[in-house]
Design brief:
about 35% strand; mainly beta; two-stranded antiparallel ribbon; 6 strands; rod-shaped; about 110 residues
Length: about 110
């Protein structure tokens, strides 16, 4: 499951690349490769959502192990400068914005 841009998760899987077969009543597990997002650097593994990395295989085919990926976000600060009467740039201490955006996304200071 890949997090939507609005911070929510879809109700159905975004990708189901890893369909596997195993014998009934055996234990299956999510692999380290399964924990790597297909869309990097935009996504990283969401350890807060992933609860069960293994399960016992049900004979009716209902066993599903879910892996969640959240948006890879970072905080940054935008500082504003103005040009004074001497044509020198001065920091505008009345305008500083701290923002959070997704890695790889284009941002603007506007």
């Amino acid at each position: 499951y890949y997090m939507n841009d609005n911070g929510t998760y879809p109700t159905t899987a975004t990708s189901s690349d890893a369909t596997r077969k195993a014998k009934t009543d055996t234990i299956v597990s999510v692999t380290d490769a399964d924990k790597m997002p297909n869309q990097t650097p935009k996504y990283v593994l969401d350890d807060t959502k992933n609860e069960d990395w293994s399960a016992t295989v049900a004979g009716n085919g209902s066993t599903v192990l879910k892996v969640y990926f959240k948006l890879n976000q970072a905080d940054y600060t935008v500082e504003f400068y103005y040009q004074d009467e001497n044509l020198e740039y001065q920091k505008d201490n009345t305008r500083t914005d701290t923002r959070t955006d997704t890695i790889g996304q284009t941002v603007s200071a506007g």
